[in-house]
Design goal:
The complex is a heterodimer of chains A (315) and B (285).
Chain A (H helix, E strand, L loop, with lengths): L1 H14 L3 E5 L8 H6 L4 E3 L4 H13 L3 E7 H5 L3 H10 L5 E5 L17 H6 L5 E4 L3 H11 L6 E4 L21 E2 L8 E7 L3 H14 L4 E5 L2 E3 L3 H9 L1 E11 L4 H12 L6 E7 L10 H7 L4 H11 L6
Parallel strand pairs in A: 1-2, 1-3, 3-4, 4-6, 5-6, 8-9, 8-11, 11-12
Antiparallel strand pairs in A: 5-10, 7-9
Chain B lengths: L1 H4 L7 H6 L4 H17 L4 H5 L2 H11 L14 E4 L5 H11 L38 H15 L5 E6 L6 H12 L5 E7 L2 E2 L2 E2 H5 L4 H7 L3 E6 L3 H13 L6 E6 L23 H11 L1
Parallel strand pairs in B: 1-2, 2-3, 3-7, 6-7
Antiparallel strand pairs in B: 4-5
Helix pairs in contact in B: 3-6, 3-12, 5-6, 5-11, 7-8
The chains are: A alpha/beta (315), B alpha/beta (285).
């Protein structure tokens, strides 16, 4: 996903002279083509995120289109005020590509785990917040980003993630994607997921379908602006809504969905279960998938949660 | 503290304190006082130390078109110490960027002039107020000018307290790396931050040596002496260079109101007591 997103930066830079790349202190082989062919638009500026964001803002104020890349925790937490004031207050088209959203850096511990990035980015006016599900989708997002007039936070996953997105389902920033074909009239379970949690939700949906449940899965690659219409329509036709995210239960996708249902919904809420990371820093290492399973964010955990929420009738 | 205060400068610091203000400087302060009285508040001390710096930049040095604030060929000026905005507003109003009557709506609900400058104000290049942001943004603007093949100069004015922020030094290292000879940073060195003396709160001496070691070409002058400012700032901004420049402007916080000079209680006033109003009117007279 990271490689694909950076390859896309090069493609965009060839297409549009406004595009510049700014990294902090990334791998030595980062974007070699851009460095070779457009050195004046390639910047590797060291471990100085506050400066990097301010610098990107200065360029964007002059009409450039900066794509900034570093580890997700550092591009969000470390320079939050710069993101708020320099990017969001000016509403500048700077793209923040955050490597390792969620538990990708599980072995490196909580300093490198971006478990609240969606919440804090979502709280900023003018910011667009995205978490795509695979490398193909990141390419579609990058393509769409060229003409999006606001700052965008692009949460990346590990890389090598299974490809579940399909071109024929389309892609537009702020537009939810139905991941399961079939009739939409009524569903027993509506799963709403973002990022690579969508892959787990899709597997869970397949298992639940085998049990005879009518499942629908909405993939929200854009958490802000939220596709409220899609969420409200799908939720109004569901007996149970389950949100799934590799993120703190505070302020992320689940919160955004509930806000939409409470603010704009018909009044009577469906049953809702939010699956996410509890309000805790991780106290295990291991792998991303192990930590996700630990908190029930894998397919088995999602199936379990659906059974529990439905009253244990299918245990 | 004593060791810090012992750092000597070529500029006559007693001369800075005694520097008389000419008619134009008094007129611009009058615009500031007008906004303060109408707004009922303001960062008074931090604005009064930079009036001459901003005045000279806009009167004599920067390439700018007040009737066309977004003219691409203009030089950029960022007031990084955004709390000093009253001085910028006074100069921009006087130059015709917006009508002077806007000063009467300073901090009003429907006004465009807030307690920190925003880009909705014609002539303001960047929203500032949170400190330590201006130099990184200026670095980005300077790099953009280079990429776009423009001859713009980028000037950024920082406070001496502001440079406590680490982001300033991140940006300083970056400016050096890129050899930004068209970038000029100015420090309003009034030796007073909100909580008191910069020597006590967070001493940054040896100041010139710090910036020199970060790769800047450093000069200094009396920040209230219009002639000295024209010469020193003019050279820093207009003469070509390979390295970024830093100008230390020795100033007096609260300059122009005798009771406010070097008085930290005049950093910000949100309650204009009769005593404060009297002091302001006395200075206006």
């Amino acid at each position: 996903m990271r490689k694909r997103s950076l390859a896309m930066v090069y493609e965009l830079a060839k297409r549009d002279r406004r595009v510049v790349f700014i990294g902090s202190d990334l791998a030595p082989d980062t974007l070699p083509e851009l460095k070779r062919h457009c050195p004046e638009r390639y910047f590797m500026e060291g471990i100085a995120e506050a400066n990097v964001i301010g610098m990107a803002a200065g360029m964007a104020l002059e009409g450039m289109l900066p794509y900034v890349n570093t580890i997700a925790t550092f591009i969000t937490r470390r320079c939050y005020e710069q993101v708020a004031v320099d990017l969001c207050l000016h509403d500048l088209p700077v793209r923040l590509i955050g490597n390792g959203g969620g538990y990708v850096y599980a072995p490196l511990g909580p300093t490198h785990q971006a478990i609240e990035d969606i919440a804090i980015m979502r709280a900023l006016p003018n910011m667009t917040v995205t978490a795509v599900c695979d490398a193909d989708e990141v390419a579609r997002l990058m393509d769409a980003s060229l003409d999006w007039p606001h700052p965008i936070y692009i949460r990346l996953a590990k890389g090598g993630d299974p490809i579940i997105s399909r071109a024929e389902r389309g892609f537009a920033i702020g537009k939810a994607i139905d991941m399961i074909d079939g009739e939409r009239e009524r569903s027993d379970v509506l799963l709403i997921a973002t990022g690579v949690a969508t892959t787990q939700a899709l597997r869970a949906a397949e298992r639940l379908a085998e049990e005879g449940l009518r499942c629908r899965l909405l993939h929200l690659h854009t958490i802000k602006p939220l596709d409220r219409r899609a969420v409200l329509d799908a939720a109004s036709a569901a007996d149970l809504v389950v949100t799934v995210e590799e993120h703190s239960v505070i302020g992320g996708l689940g919160s955004a969905v509930i806000e939409a249902l409470v603010d704009d919904g018909p009044g009577r809420l469906p049953r809702i279960k939010r699956l996410g990371i509890p309000d805790k820093f991780a106290n295990h290492y291991g792998s991303q998938s192990a930590l996700m399973a630990h908190w029930g964010l894998d397919a088995a955990g999602i199936v379990r949660a659906v059974h529990d929420a439905r009253g244990g009738s299918r245990r | 503290m004593k060791a810090a205060m012992a750092f000597t400068y070529a500029t006559d610091l007693e001369g800075v304190k005694a520097q008389p203000l000419d008619e134009r400087s008094r007129y611009l302060r009058g615009l500031i006082f007008r906004a303060i009285e109408q707004g009922g508040r303001g960062h008074i001390g931090p604005a009064l130390s930079i009036v001459e710096i901003i005045r000279v930049l806009y009167d004599d040095i920067l390439r700018a078109r007040p009737t066309e604030p977004k003219w691409p060929g203009r030089d950029r000026f960022i007031l990084s110490k955004g709390h000093g905005c009253l001085a910028l507003y006074a100069v921009l109003a006087d130059k015709g960027y917006f009508p002077a009557r806007e000063l009467d709506r300073f901090c009003h609900f429907d006004g465009i002039l807030g307690g920190h400058p925003e880009v909705i104000v014609p002539g303001v290049e960047a929203c500032t107020g949170a400190l330590g942001h201006g130099l990184p943004v200026a670095v980005g603007m300077a790099l953009a000018a280079r990429i776009q093949g423009r001859d713009s100069r980028i000037v950024v004015l920082m406070g001496d307290g502001e440079i406590n922020e680490g982001s300033v030094w991140e940006a300083a290292a970056c400016a050096d790396k890129h050899g930004l000879g068209h970038l000029v940073a100015i420090i309003d060195y009034n030796r007073m931050q909100s909580a008191g003396s910069t020597y006590e709160i967070q001493n940054m001496e040896p100041l010139a040596d710090k910036w020199t070691s970060f790769g800047f070409e450093v000069s200094e002058c009396n920040g209230h002496d219009v002639g000295a400012l024209r010469a020193v700032l003019g050279a820093a901004v207009r003469q070509p260079a390979k390295r970024a420049r830093l100008v230390i402007c020795h100033t007096v916080k609260g300059k122009g109101i005798p009771s406010a000079e070097n008085n930290p209680s005049w950093h910000h006033k949100s309650d204009l007591t009769e005593e404060v109003r009297r002091a302001i009117r006395g200075a206006s007279g």
